[in-house]
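Need a sequence for this fold. Nothing fancy.
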């Protein structure tokens, strides 16, 4: 495939992708989507201008076309950085690098440097952005904990970056590798990058959506703690371990007192604010190994691994005092909340049903005793007696 045909293929490919994106109902809130879609538009315009070289003025088909191409590659990398949760990388690093790359290329064109020098500049700048995209996918533990798709894209983008840079820096070849082969591989890398960046981003977005759906199955969206299903799953191994001798695991059931009044008097948005504030207060009283989950409404469960009943009572009292001492500031009111808590420990013969039944009974005892208090479930010996 000659260069002219390759440029036509790249132009038509990006234009068809932009047309498809026009009808694609992608959520614009998807991290990086706006940057990625704009990248495709800029690249489409750039490849069209490069294809029309000789027809349009050189100013449009050389510095302007390459500037648009740099911006498109930069936005491709920016989309991956945004998807990885590091949006500042675009503003702090990629944007200045884009300005520098465009300025250098424009200076080379104005000084009428040889075409080989301009190709070298364009290759290095393009390769830099391919590598920046790979760095986004591999940063922050992305390589170690990333999916096979993410790892594949990292390796592919690094390989393509190397091929593109080699095309510009090795115009005469390298040892037994001739110049025609290096040029062909470099141009092929530009072509492969088009579908790789397009479908790579879409597949990564789908992968993230699936992971988020799986997370929401076990996490409460409002308070960002495990929901009933997630808490039960996390608790199950500890119920099994209770059959072995050792330090027991404690369970606390917490319910905000008269929470319904908050929703009735101030509205559900304020009620949501109270719940989130209460969870934050509780987390400050817990260890990293402890687990808090939302069972529903204003009822929460707290698992305290390797904690005796006496220590669990101390933790519950600390939580109760912290909630009572921390009023929630809403837009039009300051809301004072209290909580009732029931405490028990996991026993060798417990099932999840019997464990929560006993903790619930302790919670009811705390409510019947006047609320804003902690009650402990009767010890096993007391029940047997």
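Here you go.
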């Amino acid at each position: 495939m000659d260069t002219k045909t390759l440029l036509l293929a790249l132009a038509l490919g990006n234009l068809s992708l932009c047309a498809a994106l026009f009808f694609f109902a992608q959520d614009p809130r998807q991290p990086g989507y706006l940057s990625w879609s704009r990248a495709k538009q800029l690249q489409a315009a750039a490849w069209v201008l490069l294809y029309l070289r000789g027809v349009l003025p050189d100013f449009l088909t050389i510095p302007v076309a390459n500037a648009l191409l740099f911006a498109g590659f930069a936005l491709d990398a920016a989309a991956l950085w945004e998807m990885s949760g590091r949006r500042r990388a675009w503003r702090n690093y990629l944007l200045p690098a884009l300005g520098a790359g465009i300025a250098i290329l424009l200076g080379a064109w104005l000084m009428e440097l040889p075409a080989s020098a301009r190709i070298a500049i364009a290759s290095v700048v393009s390769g830099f952005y391919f590598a920046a995209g790979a760095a986004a996918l591999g940063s922050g533990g992305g390589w170690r904990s990333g999916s096979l798709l993410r790892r594949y894209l990292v390796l592919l983008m690094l390989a393509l970056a190397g091929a593109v840079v080699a095309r510009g820096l090795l115009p005469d070849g390298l040892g037994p590798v001739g110049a025609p082969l290096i040029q062909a591989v470099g141009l092929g890398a530009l072509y492969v990058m088009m579908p790789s960046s397009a479908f790579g981003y879409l597949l990564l977005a789908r992968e993230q959506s699936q992971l988020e759906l799986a997370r929401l199955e076990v996490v409460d969206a409002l308070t960002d703690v495990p929901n009933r299903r997630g808490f039960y799953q996390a608790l199950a191994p500890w119920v099994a371990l209770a059959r072995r001798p050792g330090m027991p695991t404690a369970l606390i059931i917490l319910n905000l007192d008269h929470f319904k009044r908050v929703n009735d008097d101030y509205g559900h948005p304020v009620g949501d604010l109270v719940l989130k504030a209460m969870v934050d207060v509780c987390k400050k009283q817990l260890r990293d190994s402890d687990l808090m989950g939302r069972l529903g409404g204003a009822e929460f469960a707290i698992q305290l691994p390797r904690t005796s009943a006496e220590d669990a009572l101390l933790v519950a009292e600390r939580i109760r005092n912290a909630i009572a001492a921390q009023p929630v500031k809403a837009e039009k009111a300051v809301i004072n909340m209290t909580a009732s808590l029931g405490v028990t420990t996991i026993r060798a013969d417990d099932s999840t049903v019997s464990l929560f039944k006993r903790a619930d009974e302790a919670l009811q005892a705390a409510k019947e005793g006047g609320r804003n208090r902690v009650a402990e479930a009767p010890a096993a010996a007391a029940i047997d007696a």
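For context: The first strand starts at residue 250 and ends at 256.
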